[in-house]
């Protein structure tokens, strides 16, 4: 299955991703907002559960994303969702991924609306290592309790 | 004047060419020309008069054409006279007509008249095409036409001299005596005097304008002074120039102020600086924003990087995949690689089996895959990037603040400058424009003044020139006065001279005529002489009375003698020495008169041609005058043609003389 970036919040994408005519948007490409929304949604542990039909907008295939860091970010979250969901069907796992991404986009949009600007440092530092550790343990399991895994 | 040659061609009875050279020697003034009646003696006399003075009627010229020549064919009928004047110059007068052949001699007529005067070298002095006046001027130098009758006369027709109370005769007499010339001089002087008076009148009238012109000049000089001042360093022009200078200074101050405002104003510089800074800040801000936005767009990977780092910090997996493969391989053997037996329920085998299951769990596999993923491509140096982001944010904030400040500054400066321009610059500009306009007007005014001065200078120069010329005119006036005075005095003097000359000449002529008359008359004891009145009337004086000729009623011979005496008197005092040609010299004179006359002929002139008939002068008569005779000619019919005559010079010999007796 080809994993394709999609959204049920096209409206937010339209606002935050640059069109040809707009200069003051935060993101230049849809995959930039998607990667942030995805990691942020995952971090928050929040998903936007919608039917697949509601995500009609196709952006780009993951494999076609050129900047490695964005592609790797999506792959990383995909892997974590795969562990978390314990699902084996790629489409199902990808559905979970898209749910996180749309929710994360909504949260980002809300944060921008609330703060009046995009707070990169706040977003990144708001998900510090400790916060992540807690989230990862919740999502992936305690390393001491997983078979064949140990805390580092 | 002496005639040196007479040449006749087809003239009257002279067929072909006939030529005589009647030049006289000193002390021998007489030339005798003998001719019987009808031989051409009078024609010869006529030829001389015709050649010198022409004819009164043109028809006479037809008659002059020789009859035979006219019927022979086309030809020329002419008379040529060569003469030498008192200065020794020789002239030849040629006068005649061209004629065409006629069948009947009575039909002969002149086709073309001609006259020509040439000098000794053959150069034309008076040509055929010249005006008649030219010839008159020429011949009047020698024998004026109106006096010709005193020099070329028929002794039988002297009555007209007997009573000279005729204007024509009187004019002729006065011409002979040179009085006419004096009268002409008087008239010329009168005319000249009138001319001078006219010129004087003109000059006088122009002199009268001088005062007016000088008044005009004074006006012009006053106007000039008004414009230029008394010494050329004041007046309206200088005043206006001063005004211009003041305004120029003011304009210069304003322009200097404007320059200060326009070019030196700190505010403008500040504005320029602020504008430049703003541009720099804008650029810097744009760069920072671009960099920051690039970082913002990497928010997802940065956050993922923190996550990946945490994963790597949090999880680790037991053993390796190779270890599981080795355990799996060992479990198929009897002994472990460490030597421990593995058959049966060996603890060692269980231990290896548990280890194998642990290494082969799905949880370990997924975490291992996650760790692999987390370690790939997400080592982004998040802290460093966030710090960079924060610096950029700080820079952006500062740049925005700076930009805002600069914009404010710029706006403030622009407002201030606008205020300055509005309040001051525009005021100065207005003043500058106003001053420039005023200066332009004043310069135009000065220019018009200077133009006016130029015009006034021209008018002044013109007036001065006119006045100068008028002054010259006044000098001329003085000159004309002198000339008028001199001319008047000359005229008066000439008039006096004329009067005196008339009286003197008349008396002298009278004395000589009386003396001659008494020599010639056969009654010298009866007559006391002749008197010439102021009107040139001849009166005969006797012991008892003074009578006019008419009253005296003298005989025809006596009348002839009176006329001779009068002509002799005139000839004696004539201003010109001209030949005398006498036709029919003796006429009705008695022997006493004839004898007296023959003894007197040589006194008439330096050349006296006497055309006589054989019965007028006998051999003794000729002998009487032979000593005073240079040439003797005889006119005869040609032997071969009795209609034609010829003139031959004959020796003044006893034969010719006796032949006449």
Automatic annotation (TrEMBL), chain A:
<protein>
    <recommendedName>
        <fullName>DNA phosphorothioation-associated protein 4</fullName>
    </recommendedName>
</protein>
TrEMBL record, chain B:
<dbReference type="GO" id="GO:0016887">
    <property type="term" value="F:ATP hydrolysis activity"/>
</dbReference>
<feature type="region of interest" description="Disordered">
    <location>
        <begin position="224"/>
        <end position="251"/>
    </location>
</feature>
<feature type="compositionally biased region" description="Acidic residues">
    <location>
        <begin position="641"/>
        <end position="651"/>
    </location>
</feature>
<feature type="domain" description="Rad50/SbcC-type AAA">
    <location>
        <begin position="5"/>
        <end position="225"/>
    </location>
</feature>
<protein>
    <recommendedName>
        <fullName>Rad50/SbcC-type AAA domain-containing protein</fullName>
    </recommendedName>
</protein>
<feature type="coiled-coil region">
    <location>
        <begin position="353"/>
        <end position="473"/>
    </location>
</feature>
<comment type="similarity">
    <text>Belongs to the Sph1/Sph2 family.</text>
</comment>
<keyword id="KW-0175">Coiled coil</keyword>
<feature type="region of interest" description="Disordered">
    <location>
        <begin position="637"/>
        <end position="661"/>
    </location>
</feature>
<dbReference type="GO" id="GO:0006302">
    <property type="term" value="P:double-strand break repair"/>
</dbReference>
<dbReference type="InterPro" id="IPR027417">
    <property type="entry name" value="P-loop_NTPase"/>
</dbReference>
<dbReference type="InterPro" id="IPR038729">
    <property type="entry name" value="Rad50/SbcC_AAA"/>
</dbReference>
<feature type="compositionally biased region" description="Basic and acidic residues">
    <location>
        <begin position="236"/>
        <end position="246"/>
    </location>
</feature>
<dbReference type="Pfam" id="PF13476">
    <property type="entry name" value="AAA_23"/>
</dbReference>
């Amino acid at each position: 299955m080809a994993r394709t970036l999609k959204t049920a919040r096209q409206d937010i994408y339209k606002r935050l991703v640059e069109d040809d005519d707009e200069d003051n948007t935060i993101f230049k490409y849809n995959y930039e907002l998607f990667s942030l929304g995805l990691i942020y949604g995952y971090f928050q542990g929040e998903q936007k559960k919608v039917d697949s039909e509601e995500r009609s907008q196709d952006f780009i295939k993951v494999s076609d994303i050129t900047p490695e860091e964005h592609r790797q970010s999506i792959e990383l979250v995909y892997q974590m969702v795969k562990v978390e969901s314990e699902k084996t069907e790629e489409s199902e796992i990808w559905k979970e991924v898209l749910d996180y991404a749309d929710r994360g986009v909504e949260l980002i949009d809300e944060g921008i609306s609330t703060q009046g600007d995009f707070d990169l440092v706040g977003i990144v530092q708001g998900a510090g290592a400790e916060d992540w550790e807690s989230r990862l343990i919740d999502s992936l399991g305690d390393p001491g309790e997983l078979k064949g895994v140990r805390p580092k | 004047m002496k005639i040196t040659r007479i040449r006749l061609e087809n003239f009257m009875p002279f067929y072909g060419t006939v030529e005589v050279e009647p030049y006289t020697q000193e002390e021998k003034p007489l030339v005798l020309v003998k001719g019987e009646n009808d031989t051409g003696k009078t024609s010869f006399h006529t030829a001389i008069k015709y050649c010198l003075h022409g004819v009164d009627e043109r028809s006479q010229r037809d008659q002059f054409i020789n009859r035979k020549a006219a019927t022979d064919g086309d030809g020329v009928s002419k008379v040529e006279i060569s003469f030498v004047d008192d200065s020794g110059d020789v002239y030849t007068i040629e006068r005649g007509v061209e004629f065409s052949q006629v069948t009947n001699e009575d039909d002969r007529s002149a086709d073309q008249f001609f006259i020509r005067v040439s000098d000794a070298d053959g150069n034309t002095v008076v040509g055929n095409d010249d005006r008649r006046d030219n010839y008159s001027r020429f011949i009047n130098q020698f024998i004026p036409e109106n006096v010709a009758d005193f020099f070329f006369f028929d002794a039988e027709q002297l009555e007209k001299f007997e009573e000279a109370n005729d204007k024509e005769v009187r004019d002729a007499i006065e011409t002979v005596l040179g009085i006419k010339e004096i009268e002409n001089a008087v008239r010329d002087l009168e005319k000249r005097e009138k001319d001078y008076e006219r010129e004087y009148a003109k000059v006088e009238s122009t002199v009268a304008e001088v005062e007016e012109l000088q008044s005009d000049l004074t006006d012009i000089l006053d106007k000039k002074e008004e414009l230029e001042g008394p010494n050329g360093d004041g007046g309206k022009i200088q005043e206006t120039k001063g005004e211009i200078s003041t305004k120029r200074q003011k304009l210069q101050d304003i322009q200097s102020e404007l320059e200060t405002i326009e070019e030196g104003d700190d505010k403008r510089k500040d504005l320029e600086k602020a504008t430049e800074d703003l541009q720099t800040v804008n650029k810097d801000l744009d760069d920072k924003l671009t960099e920051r936005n690039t970082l913002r767009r990497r928010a997802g990977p940065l956050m993922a990087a923190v996550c990946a780092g945490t994963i790597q910090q949090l999880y680790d997996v037991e053993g390796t995949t190779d270890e599981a493969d080795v355990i799996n391989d060992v479990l198929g053997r009897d002994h472990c690689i460490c030597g421990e037996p593995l058959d049966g329920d060996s603890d060692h085998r269980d231990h290896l089996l548990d280890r194998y299951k642990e290494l082969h769990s799905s949880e370990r596999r997924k975490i291992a895959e996650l760790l692999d993923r987390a370690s790939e491509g997400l080592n982004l140096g998040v802290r460093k990037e966030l710090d960079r982001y924060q610096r950029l944010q700080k820079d952006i904030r500062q740049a925005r603040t700076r930009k805002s400040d600069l914009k404010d500054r710029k706006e403030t400066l622009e407002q201030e400058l606008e205020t300055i321009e509005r309040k001051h610059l525009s005021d100065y500009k207005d003043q500058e424009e106003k001053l420039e306009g005023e200066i332009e007007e004043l310069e135009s005014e000065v220019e018009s003044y200077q133009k006016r001065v130029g015009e006034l200078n021209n008018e002044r120069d013109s007036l001065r020139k006119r006045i100068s010329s008028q002054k010259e005119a006044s000098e001329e006036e003085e000159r004309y006065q002198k000339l008028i005075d001199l001319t008047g005095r000359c005229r008066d003097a000439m008039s006096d001279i004329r009067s005196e000359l008339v009286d003197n000449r008349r008396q002298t002529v009278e004395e000589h005529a009386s003396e001659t008359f008494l020599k010639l008359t056969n009654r010298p004891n009866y007559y006391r002489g002749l008197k010439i009145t102021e009107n040139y009337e001849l009166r005969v004086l006797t012991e008892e009375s003074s009578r006019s000729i008419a009253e005296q009623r003298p005989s025809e011979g006596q009348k002839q003698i009176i006329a001779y005496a009068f002509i002799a008197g005139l000839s004696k005092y004539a201003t010109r020495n001209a030949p005398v040609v006498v036709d029919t010299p003796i006429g009705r004179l008695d022997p006493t008169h004839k004898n007296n006359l023959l003894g007197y002929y040589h006194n008439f002139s330096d050349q006296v041609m006497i055309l006589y008939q054989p019965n007028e002068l006998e051999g003794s008569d000729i002998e009487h005058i032979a000593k005073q005779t240079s040439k003797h000619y005889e006119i005869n019919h040609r032997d071969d043609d009795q209609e034609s005559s010829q003139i031959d010079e004959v020796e003044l010999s006893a034969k010719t003389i006796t032949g006449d007796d």
